[in-house]
Every structure is written in C-alpha cells, then in structure tokens.
Design brief:
There is one protein chain. With 612 residues, the chain is mainly beta. Helices cover 4% and strands 59% of the residues. It has a 22-stranded antiparallel barrel. It has a 6-stranded mixed beta sheet with strand order 1-2-7-8-5-6. It has a two-stranded antiparallel ribbon with strand order 3-4. The longest helix has 7 residues. The protein is globular and about 70 Å long.
C-alpha cells in the first residue's frame, strides 16, 4: 500500500460499528438472476435494511465506500456526481441495477450514485467479477444491485444536520404478506458547502447545495397457487447547485414481474423494465464558455427466465433479454440536437449449477446481438471445494465486455476544442465504428468459517482490451487503442463475539494502462473497518473507518487519508428509533477527485416513528 494516512494497526484499534453487512450469504439474487440458487463464489456482499439503519447512513456512497474492492468518488457537494470503481474497473464497466432494471446511462455509460439516498434503499447486493455471461454489457468489474424500500407499516423519519440539511421520508403499507401495496415519499434539502478548491478552473467560493423529491410505489399479489405478480416504481427529481449554475435531473425506474411455477421442477419469470433519466445542466454563468445542455436516456427492457431443477444439486437457469434504448444530447443554448440515437440489443444465456460431494460450481454461456457492433459471446466458470468443515477453496474465470455508449459512438465533437483551430473540423468526436471493450478475469481464494467468525482471502487479475480512448492524432477522435491490467488481493473478515460485532477489509490493487502507468482515481491500498457494541438491548454505539492510499487524477497526486465516523442508536420505545451520525471526526481535508472538496466534520440526528 502507498502512504495510508494512519497505520493499519491504529485504524484497527479505533474501529467500532453498530452492525455489519452479511458477506457471502448462501442465497443471493444478483449472482444468479434468480433467488433460491446458491452463490457460485464467496466474494459477494449483501447489505440489509438493518445494516443501513445501524450505520445511520444518509447516502448510497456512505454504504458502498466501506466495501471491499470499491472506491467511491464525489465531485463536491451532497448532490453532485458520484461514481464508483470496483476492483479497478471504471463506473462505465460496473453494471448497476435498481430492482432488476439496468440504470447505467445510455449517453455517459455510468450511473450517478448521488441519485439514491439511504432512505430509498432496502437492500444492496455486490457481486464481484465478470458477469457479462449473465447480464451482457457493462459487467466487467461486477454488478451492484439496489433494491428499493417497501414499507412494512406506516412510518415517518426526520433527519437534520450540518449545512442546514433537512430530510423527511414517510411510508405506508396496506394488505398482507401475499397481497399488498406500499407507498413512500421523501424530501431532502441542504445548503451544502463550497464544493471546489482554488485549483479548480471553475472555482467560486460559494455554497453548493440542492434538493430532491422522491416517490416510490410497489406491490404484489398472488394470482393463483402457482402464479405471483409484483411491480415497483421509483421517481426522483433533484436540483443541484454548482459554481457555474444549476443542474436539474429527473430519474425514474419501473418494473413488473410475473412468476409462475409450471411444476415442481420448472419455474419461469417474465420481467419488464423501464428507465428514464434526464439531466439539464445550465452553465450559462460560466464567464469563459457558457453552456446549457441536456442528456436524456429512455430504455425499455424485457427478460424471460427459466429455472429448471434436474436433480438434487443440479439446476439450470436460461433466459432471453431484450433492450431498446434511446439517447439524446441537445445543446439548449444553441437550440441544436447533437445526437438522437436508438439502439437495440438481444441476448440469450444459459447457466448450469452443480453440487456433488465437497465440490460445487457453475458454467455460463451467453450470446448478444447489438446494433452498434453485431454479435458478441461471453462465458464464465466457477468451482469451489469444501476441503474441511471450516475451509472452502474457490476459483473462477470469465470474459466480459462493455458496449460503447451513445456519447462514444455519436458525439459530434466541437470545433472550439481544436488546436490549432481548423475550419470545418470538430475535435474529440465519437466514432460509430467502435468495438466493445473486452476483458478476461481470473480469481482464486480461500474462505474460513468457525464459531461465527469468517475470513476470506482472494486474488484476481483482469486484463481489459480495446479500451475506448482519445486518439493522440488530430482531430483526436475516440478509438479502441488501449488496454489495462487490473489486479489485486482482497482480505475481508467479519464476526460477532457476545455484544461486539466486527468487520474489516484490506485491499491492495494495481490498475495500470498498457504503458504501465497508474489509472486515475484508483488508490493502491484501501482499508475499511466496522465494529460495534450493543451497550444494551436498546442502545448501540460504534465507529466506521475508511482509509485510502495516494492516487492520481488529472496529473495531480491526491494524498492518502483516513476518515473516522461515529454512529449511535437508541430505541427508547418499541415504536421510536433515534439515531446520530458524526462524519469525518478528525475534520480531515482530502480529495476524492482533483479540484473538489469533500465534506468537513458534520453531524446528523434522526428520528423514526413506526405505527404498530
């Protein structure tokens, strides 16, 4: 590791946390696309609603930044763009799902994590490794699936804290366990803080705040003894301040599922999905190059999945996927459409799971047909062996890919970016002939479990080819002309001893391009620690620590840092839950992205009342 801000032992000594996430559960949904099938490898993580409440988290970034192999970067204030790196893979190479619906933006390729608050979320599953054989494009580094809230009963939450932050959410539910309807609404407003540093070209020493409204609706019903139907919908609109102006965003997802047990051995699921994401960025306050832009994504999707149980320990999952997406880029200042594209893709996959004696494993194959580049095949295999009652060995190998985004393919470039200026020429344009980025990933490891304690040590190596990058030749179009090697070692562990729950992970990674240079915003060393104490049955206290070594961004070296947060919870009555969270206890000044500040010391108080 490079220059961790606190020695590792000091960080371990100061960690305390109220609860921990469940790592490598027996059953997950994201790894296999269906519930009820064992996870192929013990390298996934599940965060439940109990974990989220115990940590008093306010944002999705708060939750993900504590997980092994993940690095979260925020460009300033509480509502500004937030991205994720998973095992060195960029945000465009990490598939994000919300209730099973793909939410990676068609124009930019990545998903902005700031669009979801912790109060919006019921559960998070993180699957590390290549999953294109199950999902198609984008799953080079892994898959993060977010399941939105469904109220169990009527409830209301109020949160307030620094920067004049005010957050309110409420929910209600009608029906029973099989036929029900849940509705939720939320509002958050914050004055924020000065998001940029003087080194930033757009520096303006003002506060950069924002506000957001959220609405969620979900329900399910049993149509017959063998048939169930469910739906979900999330809508969010937000306004964010930045130094040159304002951005306004609409984000919505919806989905419906129809599940049918054909017989005792055959289960099928039909799933429909919809995504809407519109971002208007008003930078007319920029004194040098004023702008006013719009990016919009619309995506319809459908999947038909089949689970077949052949014999004890032998299961097959097969499916068909379809996506129809449109991407719009418009210059609102010039009243000019830069591109308005539509792309379709179809995919078919099959996965075989098997268990015999001490061995278990899987094999997957997938064929995709994409409008921009044609057909592409991917596959993966996994194998694990329970060599001792406490010891499990595992290994996996697979291929993955990322399809070019609409910006990669169709962005027309800009004459003003050319140096020297050349009449009739636009620089940094997209390229409709781009090929997909591809990867080959291998990993192996060992997991120990005994008396409620667990330790996993794993190593991975991911070779990515045909990376989409800017040509070094005028007029600098995008080309497939780069490669990267992403490799590392992960150690994560957790357990419980009486009233103390603990969890820690350490990562050492190397993310280099084809010339051996470090890729931006990837620290070589990471540490996260969570430990907590149940003081009584009603009171818990704890701390979380995350530390990062130095990294590079925009030619700058971003210093390593360690951040310590404190959390506490108190349940004075069965229907009332009080919480407190103190972030950045040491008031550490650090950067996750060059030129942008991160929050100083700040505190938040919350209260939740549940009608019983």
């Amino acid at each position: 590791m490079k220059h961790l801000s606190l020695p590792l032992l000091a960080a371990l000594a100061t960690t305390a946390f109220a609860d921990t996430g469940t790592t490598t559960p027996d059953m997950v949904i994201t790894d296999t696309r269906l519930s009820g099938i064992p996870a192929p490898l013990p390298n996934n993580t599940v965060l439940t609603r109990d974990d989220i409440v115990a940590r008093q988290a306010t944002t999705l970034a708060d939750l993900l930044q504590q997980e092994a192999g993940l690095t979260v970067t925020t460009s300033g204030g509480p509502f500004t763009s937030t991205g994720v790196f998973l095992r060195g893979s960029a945000g465009k190479q990490v598939l994000i799902l919300v209730d099973g619906v793909r939410v990676n933006d068609a124009s930019q390729g990545a998903f902005d994590l700031s669009l979801l608050r912790a109060d919006d979320i019921e559960r998070i599953e993180i699957a590390r490794g290549p999953y294109s054989a199950q999902y198609g494009s984008d799953a080079i580094g892994g898959v993060i699936q977010i399941f939105t809230r469904q109220s169990e009963r009527a409830e209301v939450t109020v949160r307030a804290g620094r920067f004049n932050t005010q957050e309110y959410s409420a929910g209600a539910r009608a029906g029973d366990s099989e036929n029900n309807l849940s509705v939720r609404a939320g509002y958050v407003n914050s004055d924020g803080f000065n998001a940029t540093l003087p080194s930033n070209f757009a520096y303006n020493p003002d506060r950069d705040g924002g506000l957001a409204h959220t609405a969620q609706l979900s329900g399910q019903t049993r149509l017959s003894e063998n048939t169930r139907a469910s739906f979900h919908a999330t809508w969010k609109d937000s306004t964010t301040e930045f130094d040159q102006g304002l951005s306004d965003q609409e984000f919505g997802t919806a989905g419906a599922r129809l599940e049918h047990d054909v017989n005792a051995f055959w289960h099928q699921t039909l799933q429909l999905g919809w995504l809407h994401n519109r971002l208007d960025t008003d930078g007319r306050g920029d004194p040098w190059t004023p702008y006013f832009s719009r990016f919009k994504t619309e995506r319809d999707s459908a999947s038909w999945l089949h689970e077949l149980l052949w014999a004890e320990g032998w299961q097959t999952v097969a499916g068909l996927d379809y996506e129809d997406e449109s991407a719009l880029s418009r210059d609102l200042l010039a009243n000019h459409t830069q591109f308005d594209s539509r792309l379709q893709s179809e995919g078919a996959f099959v996965t075989q799971y098997a268990r015999a004696g001490i061995f278990s494993g899987s094999a997957s194959l997938r064929e995709d047909d994409h409008d921009s580049f044609g057909r592409h095949s991917t596959g993966n295999v996994t194998l694990s062996a329970q060599v001792l009652p406490t010891t499990r060995l595992y290994a996996g190998y697979g291929s993955a890919y990322r399809a070019p985004s609409a910006n990669d393919l169709f962005y027309p470039g800009d004459p003003s970016y050319c140096f020297p200026f050349t009449p009739g020429v636009s620089c940094y344009a997209g390229n409709p002939n781009l090929k997909p980025e591809t990867s080959r990933n291998g990993e192996f490891g060992v997991e120990f479990r005994q008396d409620g304690q667990r330790i996993r040590i794993g190593a991975y190596r991911n070779r990515v080819r045909d990376l989409i990058t800017t040509s070094s030749t005028f007029p600098y179009p995008l080309i497939n002309d780069s490669r990267a090697t992403l490799q590392g070692i992960e150690l994560d562990a957790d357990g419980r001893v009486q009233r103390v729950t603990w969890r820690a992970n350490i990562g050492s990674q190397s993310a280099e391009d084809g010339e051996g240079k470090d890729l931006p915003r990837r620290p070589q060393g990471t540490f996260n620690g969570l430990v907590g104490v149940d003081v009584t049955d009603q009171i818990n206290v704890g701390t979380e620590v995350h530390a990062r070594s130095t990294s590079l961004d925009s030619g700058q070296s971003l210093g390593g840092y360690t951040v310590v947060n404190l959390v506490a919870g108190w349940k004075p009555a069965p229907a009332l839950q009080l919480g407190a969270r103190l972030e950045n206890l040491g008031n550490k000044m650090y950067q996750e992205a060059a030129g942008y500040r991160t929050p100083p010391r700040s505190g938040y108080l919350s209260a939740t009342y549940i009608w019983r």
